[in-house]
């Protein structure tokens, strides 16, 4: 069973890697130290992928939303909001599990051996609410309220927090541009501190950025319980073995919490279920009330 689980997990990683390559296929940018600014940059990708990455051929929806939310021209902001709502309603957090380059980086970091991996801890589920606060404050309120003389708000989440931007955009651009190297300040150091902490935590905790920080994951999670793509649990087939709960790296119990807001649809629960009690479906079948955990 473990061999099958690992095989399916690496299959997912291959799809993640392929998608990361496709969405960062402007390879000349890495050589020249320049950002692609062609027509595709007006479009958004499903995952968190920095606009400033030299290879990025499209925009990050969170960065795009911040870039215009403080101005009077909301056409692009409406497009981004519609894009997120459509994708969320269609597949929920499937994009987090399969199409986010920074999610892949965290997945691979967690495979690095460490003396004690950290699973669920006291206050873990409460701490996961932090990403909703970050979404409201840094993505919406600050760019909307703190504006310059031209009425334009800064992308505060990208500027102050996002470690994906530092890794994908900040480091490659600075290495290729001497002018940027001479202009580095404390903010660049601060962003590297956040990146270092994120990398360290990702080795110990599975996807800490996705669980506690990512505003994009917060948006998609709202749609998870109602998305077209969902998991269906057949309670008659379920033997109660608990294999799905042990396999879930997001520390959920799929039988009791199918389509939970924290589920990234990685498919591990489906892969390990020997009774085939958990299935992926694109059509909402009539669902029976889910089992409740036995109170001991």
How would you describe this protein?
The chain is 52% helix and 3% strand. The protein has 296 residues and is an all-alpha fold. It has a two-stranded antiparallel ribbon. Helix 3 (61-69) runs parallel beside helix 8 (130-145), helix 6 (101-110) packs across helix 12 and helix 10 crosses helix 12. The radius of gyration is 20 Å and the shape is globular. 42% of the residues are buried. Mean pLDDT is 90; it is low at 286-290.
Please outline what is shown here.
The protein has helices at 2-23, 28-32, 61-69, 75-91, 94-98, 101-110, 124-127, 130-145, 156-160, 163-176, 178-181, 186-204, 208-212, 215-223, 243-247, 268-272, and strands spanning 230-233, 278-281. With 296 residues, the protein is mainly α. The chain has a two-stranded antiparallel sheet.
């Amino acid at each position: 069973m473990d061999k099958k689980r690992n095989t399916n997990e690496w299959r997912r990683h291959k799809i993640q890697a392929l998608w990361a390559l496709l969405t960062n296929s402007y390879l000349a940018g890495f050589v020249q130290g320049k950002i692609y600014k062609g027509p595709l940059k007006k479009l958004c990708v499903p995952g968190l992928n920095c606009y400033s990455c030299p290879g990025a051929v499209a925009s990050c929806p969170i960065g795009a939303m911040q870039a215009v939310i403080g101005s009077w021209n909301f056409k692009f902001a409406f497009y981004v909001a519609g894009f997120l709502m459509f994708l969320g309603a269609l597949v929920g957090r499937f994009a987090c599990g399969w199409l986010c380059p920074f999610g892949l980086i965290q997945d691979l970091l967690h495979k690095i051996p460490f003396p004690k991996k950290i699973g669920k801890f006291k206050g873990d589920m409460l701490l996961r609410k932090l990403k909703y606060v970050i979404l409201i404050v840094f993505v919406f309120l600050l760019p909307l309220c703190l504006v310059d003389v031209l009425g334009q708000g800064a992308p505060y989440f990208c500027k102050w927090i996002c470690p994906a931007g530092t890794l994908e955009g900040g480091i490659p651009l600075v290495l290729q541009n001497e002018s940027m190297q001479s202009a580095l300040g404390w903010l660049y150091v601060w962003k590297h501190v956040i990146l270092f902490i994120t990398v360290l935590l990702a080795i110990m905790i599975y996807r800490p950025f996705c669980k506690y920080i990512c505003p994009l994951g917060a948006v998609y999670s709202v749609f998870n319980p109602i998305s077209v793509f969902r998991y269906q649990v057949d309670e008659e087939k379920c033997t109660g073995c608990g294999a799905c709960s042990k396999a879930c790296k997001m520390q959920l119990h799929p039988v009791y919490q199918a389509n939970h807001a924290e589920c990234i649809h990685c498919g591990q629960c489906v892969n390990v279920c020997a009774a085939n009690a958990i299935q992926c479906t694109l059509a909402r079948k009539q669902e029976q009330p889910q089992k409740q955990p036995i109170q001991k």
